From TrEMBL:
<feature type="domain" description="DNA/pantothenate metabolism flavoprotein C-terminal">
    <location>
        <begin position="2"/>
        <end position="103"/>
    </location>
</feature>
<dbReference type="InterPro" id="IPR007085">
    <property type="entry name" value="DNA/pantothenate-metab_flavo_C"/>
</dbReference>
<feature type="domain" description="DNA/pantothenate metabolism flavoprotein C-terminal">
    <location>
        <begin position="118"/>
        <end position="223"/>
    </location>
</feature>
<dbReference type="InterPro" id="IPR011848">
    <property type="entry name" value="CoaB_strep"/>
</dbReference>
<keyword id="KW-0436">Ligase</keyword>
<dbReference type="Pfam" id="PF04127">
    <property type="entry name" value="DFP"/>
</dbReference>
<protein>
    <submittedName>
        <fullName>Phosphopantothenate--cysteine ligase</fullName>
    </submittedName>
</protein>
<dbReference type="GO" id="GO:0016874">
    <property type="term" value="F:ligase activity"/>
</dbReference>
<dbReference type="GO" id="GO:0015937">
    <property type="term" value="P:coenzyme A biosynthetic process"/>
</dbReference>
<dbReference type="InterPro" id="IPR035929">
    <property type="entry name" value="CoaB-like_sf"/>
</dbReference>
Length: 237
């Protein structure tokens, strides 16, 4: 199979030296890529700039991703050639529009007009005590995946914080149907540590659990192979 994995996080630039990012390490994406490679699959890994990645491998291609726009470009290029997409990346929900000092904002009668401005400095001055940063929502990449390749096996991820299993499952199922995914791996930040990573792999009719990143990777690889074989009506990969 040809596998595409997104991993790590994106960084949305404020200026040439600053950006908004997240704490995603890409560790699970690295383990997933290694597990797919160990079972003789071809892997394309779209990895954030600081994401952990596997060692070089003849069946592995690593492409570094900076922001949401670069992720969308890479997805458009690769998805039509892919059998399975595992979308683990923590994609930025917002991207900067314009940053200015608080006094300018307070004096502006039409706040909406600030949304059409752009910073032209390579490095925005840090002399002001307070700055106001305007953000706009980024497009949901997962929502476009099945549009680009309706036959792809799509595994998405849903991360929540300190919720019940029932709420986690309900939210993951909503994402499953909304994005036409085959599986959603639901996890809660409070159950993730160096030695533990609890996850629920949710499909339309089944839920399977795992307790570590390695178990999650093995489960995803197994279910991807099963879904691919079933979809193609053959037992070989």
């Amino acid at each position: 199979m040809h596998i595409l994995i997104t991993s790590g996080g994106t960084t949305e630039p404020i200026d040439d030296v600053r950006g908004i990012t997240n704490f995603a390490t890409g560790k699970l994406g690295k383990i997933l890529a290694e597990q797919f490679l160990a079972t003789n699959h071809q892997v394309v890994l779209l990895a954030g700039l600081t994401a952990l990645v596997p060692d070089n491998h003849p069946n592995l291609q690593i492409i570094r991703i900076s922001n949401v726009d670069s992720l969308a470009i890479a997805m458009n290029q690769w998805l039509p050639k892919i059998n399975v997409c595992v979308h683990t990346m923590a994609v930025s929900d917002y991207t900067p529009v314009y940053m200015t000092d608080l006094e300018t904002v307070e004096k502006t009668q039409d706040i909406q007009s600030l949304l059409t401005r752009q910073n032209t400095e390579h490095k925005i001055s840090s002399q002001e005590t307070y700055q106001v940063l305007f953000l706009k929502k980024t497009p949901k990449i997962i929502a476009s995946i099945k549009n680009l390749n309706p036959d792809i096996i799509l595994i998405g991820f849903k991360l929540m914080v300190d919720v019940s299993d029932a709420q986690l499952i309900e939210t993951a199922r909503a994402s499953l149907y909304k994005n036409n995914a085959d599986y959603i791996l639901a996890n809660d930040l409070t159950t993730i540590s160096e030695t533990q990573h609890k996850g629920l792999l949710i499909s339309q009719h089944h839920i399977q659990s795992a307790d570590t990143k390695q178990q999650i990777a093995q489960l995803i690889v197994s279910k991807s192979e099963e879904a691919y074989d079933k979809r193609n009506h053959r037992g070989n990969r």
